[in-house]
Design brief:
Rossmann fold; seven-stranded mixed sheet; alpha/beta; golgi apparatus; Znf_Sec23_Sec24; 931 residues; 16% strand; 22 helices; single chain
């Protein structure tokens, strides 16, 4: 048997972990230890979920599954490269305890709970199977933040009990056993960082974060040295002092924040102080915290910009945008009643509308001076929708009539740049520079006014994907300074230089949505729902974020354009529930093993009603010098996000083939370090660490993404840039589904409880263990069944796949269509699944509802995907089948593991990996990015 065949055979029996780790060694030692103290366990394997003997038939090419050409290529880790780190490390495990300060040991009941820390359970290396297995673990138990360490997968719905450390939905670490030194961290080849989603929806009945009122002196309790906010790990003492958990400095407690101490070492008012009980709270703050000192904060202001140029009117996107604006304003009137809105439409001129409620009819003001825009009026420019709904509707009707009937007045030019300047001027004038939200549509390349771009095509002469236009770079900076965020809806497949026109979106943490080949009857529903969803997700603005760490660690960089990917505190002009930030950390000094390291994110922001607050999010990890325990408590999601963000922010000249080689090399280094330092197994077996078992699958899928396609013919096309900008706006669950879509078959035999909700709140979708194999469809051409029926979800769109051989009774039960109706005549009304009252239809609806909750979307469009029927079929399938080999020779997932295993063996044979042994480098500081 050839070497390649031997390697291929080993892939079919991937080890879940090093057998030595699960060989029935010593169980965890039970002792009283501080909250989340050092984790040191060697436990037995927990059996994975059972499988049924179902075998998926192979699909013939003639059934419409020919693999379309895929022009995918990868790229490199740019910038500083991979820093291995150096330092002195002890290789023996140490059980540690938290250092004691003063007479009192704890500031909350969770200071020394004596609970056993839960060990992450083994799951499959197959992504869809792992998702089912992980969800099953949280059907009958909650995630307890003082007992559990590594959080569930982002695609898992779970209940969380905040016991003094935050819900991991809000903030999670990449390592919960933190290496004691940079050398030991470098030996893992993994980044130390944190992923923050401050306003993630919490599963438990949409529980809200408590708000802490202003104390008598008007300021929250904070450390005088590091300025950390009071939290459950503040240690209060009997001498009216407090020890900061971040910097360990002891200070006197101000009289207005002091309280008698009980014999148990706890404050007598502990149960009244939620900031000392819960890991996440909102503090009300005084005017000294205002974004503009001399001005009181205002409710959020919106400006809607509608492109009414010729092409936008012809494809119906302008009318869809009008309907979207109407729906958004109705939502604002009902759920954000203090916010104000303004309307501007543009083509080769700017049209402003007076929305004063006392007017009889809509008043329109036309400005044709585009080089030096001005406001034709002030009063009535912004109004509260609840007061002016009649005149707003009249205005929208007038705009619709112009689009539909006054066709001889339509012009092809669009003054996009001038329109953005007008919106900024309106917000600056009315709010006094306090910011707001601009929601804009664009259908063609801007060719008139400020910021006009010459008509051109993407000729691949420019290798990089950075904005070079001085006007848009300056405008984006001005937006940021004024706390203005831009959402842009692009409704044409023609080249519009998206990297330039989308630059203000990128800089202001806005959202860009792209609808190529826009068709009103197909895409209008999706656009309207996207607009309403994005408005409903807004929770605040004027935000400034800062991460504080215990002594020994600090921020290396925030992956955020507003901070230029440095350690400067990022500005987020407008916050949404999906706003997610990744932060890379660095070592300043070696940390003592056996102690806890604390992290606090402080987010200063104004809510949509104009109330200034600080949201504090607290968590902690344990310091370890045991490489085995460090690998055991890795959190894959932040690791994956930081690796991807590091690639994106250092693209350079976009040599994607080189970038792919560097990503592959990084994955080989990670697994070689694990194999060389942790696993003692035979070298003929490929071993993936339990904690990052599916990381190779996700990184390979990233290499095959639209962003990473070959750039010989096109470097700055709409699809590539849209994919690039999406990575900045996706939360963790959306990113996981984007990289590796979830495929659910409905033609297989299902148990009665399969795909039904386990809990009364309809949050936890359950699956019988015996059904997991049937339901775990890998994202590969060979796993599709001719005549099957699948729901496929890739983060923002659900595809319903079936072909002419699909059981017609199944389609009738699922879609309520006649058996005799040809499949090319089947359609979905408003892009949604009909309610038929059948069991299979209910299960499909449950799956869709679960996906909506997981990615925080009120609605998700359902699109038919039929071979030999839908024109977009080949293109979509090439994006969905991330395990298959691409036309540009990016390997299939199985072959990728085989090749990677051979490279790991070669490195091990050459002894080419970082050793964990005492060395004279223990105080070397990290100077480069941690890759």
């Amino acid at each position: 048997m050839s070497q390649q065949n031997i390697l291929a055979a080993s892939v079919s029996a991937l080890s879940l972990d090093d057998p030595a780790v699960h060989s029935g060694g010593a169980s965890s030692k039970k002792s009283r230890r501080p909250h989340r103290a050092y984790h040191n366990f060697s436990s037995g394997t927990v059996p994975t979920m059972g499988n049924s003997p179902y075998t998926t038939p192979q699909l013939n090419q003639q059934d419409g599954f020919q693999q379309p050409p895929q022009a995918f290529t990868p790229r490199q880790f740019g910038g500083a490269g991979f820093n291995n780190g150096s330092g002195s490390v002890m290789s023996t495990p140490v059980m540690g305890s938290q250092e004691q300060f003063g007479a009192s040991e704890a500031s909350s009941p969770y200071g020394q709970s004596g609970l056993d820390i839960t060990i992450p359970q083994p799951t499959s290396h197959i992504v869809p199977t792992q998702r089912f297995e992980d969800q099953a673990q949280y059907l009958q138990r909650s995630f307890e933040t003082c007992r559990d360490s590594v959080p569930p997968l982002p695609t898992t719905q779970f209940y969380c009990v905040d016991q003094g450390s935050c819900d991991p939905h809000l903030m999670s670490l990449s390592m919960y056993n933190i290496p004691e030194s940079e050398h030991l961290r470098g030996a893992t080849k993994l980044p130390l960082g944190v992923t923050i989603q401050p306003f993630a929806s919490l599963t438990l009945n949409d529980a809200e974060v408590p708000t802490i009122p202003l104390p008598m002196d008007g300021t929250p309790l904070r450390c005088r040295r590091c300025r950390a906010y009071a939290n459950p790990k503040f240690q209060f003492t009997y001498d009216s002092s407090v020890i900061c958990n971040i910097c360990k400095v002891k200070m006197q407690v101000p009289a207005e924040h002091s309280a008698p101490m009980g014999p148990n070492g706890q404050r007598s008012d502990l149960n009244e102080k939620l900031e000392l009980l819960q890991g996440t709270v909102d503090f009300l703050v005084p005017s000294v915290y205002n974004a503009i000192q001399e001005k009181e904060p205002l409710p959020l202001h919106y400006v809607f910009l509608i492109d009414v140029s010729l092409l936008a009117n012809e494809n119906g996107s302008s009318l869809a945008m009008v309907e979207g604006v109407r729906s958004c304003i109705e939502y604002i009137a009902d759920f954000q009643p203090n916010c104000e809105v303004a309307l501007i439409v543009y083509d080769n001129k700017l049209r402003f509308f007076n929305l004063r409620p006392e007017l009889d009819n809509a008043q329109e003001y036309i400005v044709s001076e585009l080089d030096d825009v001005f406001l034709p009026f002030y009063t009535g420019l912004f109004v509260k929708p609840g007061n002016s709904m009649r005149i707003i509707n009249d205005t929208l009707i007038k705009i619709s009539d112009y689009i539909s009937t006054d066709k001889y007045s339509h012009v092809p030019q669009v003054c996009y740049g001038s329109a953005l300047q007008a919106a900024k001027l309106a917000l600056d004038t009315v709010t006094g520079g306090q910011g707001g939200k601009i929601i804009c549509s664009l259908n063609s390349l801007p060719t008139i006014g400020n910021g006009n771009l010459s008509l051109k095509r993407d000729n691949a002469h420019i290798a990089h994907v950075k904005c070079e236009n001085g006007f848009y770079k300056k405008l984006a900076t001005e937006f940021l300074k004024s706390y203005i965020s831009l959402d842009l809806y692009v409704t044409n497949a023609g080249f519009i230089d998206m990297v330039t026109v989308g630059h203000p979106v990128e800089m202001t943490s806005g959202i860009l949505k792209y609808y190529p080949h826009f068709q009103q009857e197909v895409d209008a529903f999706t656009l309207v729902n996207d607009m309403v969803t994005n408005v409903s997700n807004i929770v605040g603005y004027q935000a400034l974020l800062k991460v504080r760490c215990s002594t020994g660690l600090s921020v290396e960089q925030y992956y955020c354009d507003s901070s230029e990917n440095t350690d400067h505190d990022p500005i987020i002009p407008v916050l949404t529930r999906d706003s997610t930030l990744d932060v890379l950390l660095k070592y300043d000094n070696k940390i003592k093993a056996g102690t806890d390291v604390h992290f606090q994110t402080a987010l200063l922001y104004t809510d949509i009603d104009g109330v200034r607050k600080v949201r504090t999010i607290n968590t902690s990890g344990a310091v370890s010098n045991n490489i085995r325990e460090i690998f055991k408590f890795i959190n894959q999601n932040p690791v994956m996000r930081i690796m991807i963000k590091d690639v994106i922010k250092t693209l350079g000249d976009c040599d994607f083939a080189k970038i792919r080689r560097l990503i592959d090399g990084k994955m080989v280094e990670i697994l070689t370090q694990y194999r060389g330092l942790v696993s003692s197994n035979s070298s003929t077996q490929l071993i993936l660490p339990d904690s990052i078992k599916t990381l190779p699958a996700y990184m390979l899928a990233f290499e095959k993404s639209e962003l990473m396609k070959p750039n010989a013919q096109s470097t700055r096309g709409n699809e590539r840039i849209y994919d690039l900008l999406r990575y900045d706006s996706l939360n963790s669950a959306q990113l996981c589904y984007k990289l590796y879509p979830q495929i659910i078959p409905f033609h297989v035999l299902l148990e009665e409880t399969d795909l039904t909700f386990y809990d009364a709140n309809d949050k936890l979708l359950q699956t019988n263990p015996d059904s997991v194999k049937n339901l775990s469809v890998r994202s590969s051409h060979s796993n599709f069944v001719n005549g099957g029926c699948y729901l496929i979800f890739q983060g923002d769109i659900i595809y319903l796949w079936f072909n002419e051989n699909t059981n017609r009774i199944l389609l009738q039960d699922l879609l309520s269509v006649e058996e005799s109706l040809p499949i090319n005549q089947i359609s979905l009304f408003s892009g949604s699944l009909p309610e038929t009252g059948t069991e299979i239809n209910q299960k499909a609806s449950n799956v869709i509802k679960n996906w909506q909750q997981t990615v925080n979307k009120s609605t998700l469009p359902v699109v038919l995907l039929r071979p030999n029927v839908d024109q977009y079929y080949s293109n979509v399938m090439s994006q969905l089948l991330c395990e298959d080999k691409t036309v540009n020779r990016i390997e299939s997932y199985d072959n990728y593991l085989v090749i990677m295993h051979k490279k790991i063996q070669d490195k091990l044979q050459k002894d080419d990996f970082i050793k964990v042994s005492p060395a004279a480098h223990e105080n070397i500081h990290q100077k480069f990015v941690q890759f």
